[in-house]
Amino acid sequence: MIKILVDAMGGDNAPYATVAGAVQAVNKDKELHLILTGRQAEVNAELKKYSYDLSRVEVIDCPDVIDMNDSPTEAVKRKQSSLIAAYWLLKKEDDICALVTAGSTGATIVGGQLILGRIRGIKRPALCPAIPNSRGGVTLLVDCGANAECKSVMLCQFALLGTAYAKAGFNIKNPRVGLLNNGTEEHKGDPLRQETYKYLSEMKGIDFIGNVEGRDIMLGECDVVVADGFSGNIALKSIEGCGKLILSTLKREFTSSVSSKIGYLFIRKAIKRMRAQLDFDKAGGALLLGLKKPVIKSHGSSKPETIANSIANAAGIYRGKLIPAVEELLSDADFTVGDND
Amino acid sequence: MIKILVDAMGGDNAPYATVAGAVQAVNKDKELHLILTGRQAEVNAELKKYSYDLSRVEVIDCPDVIDMNDSPTEAVKRKQSSLIAAYWLLKKEDDICALVTAGSTGATIVGGQLILGRIRGIKRPALCPAIPNSRGGVTLLVDCGANAECKSVMLCQFALLGTAYAKAGFNIKNPRVGLLNNGTEEHKGDPLRQETYKYLSEMKGIDFIGNVEGRDIMLGECDVVVADGFSGNIALKSIEGCGKLILSTLKREFTSSVSSKIGYLFIRKAIKRMRAQLDFDKAGGALLLGLKKPVIKSHGSSKPETIANSIANAAGIYRGKLIPAVEELLSDADFTVGDND
Question: How far, in Å, CA of A53 to CA of B29, rounded?
Answer without folding.
Answer: 74
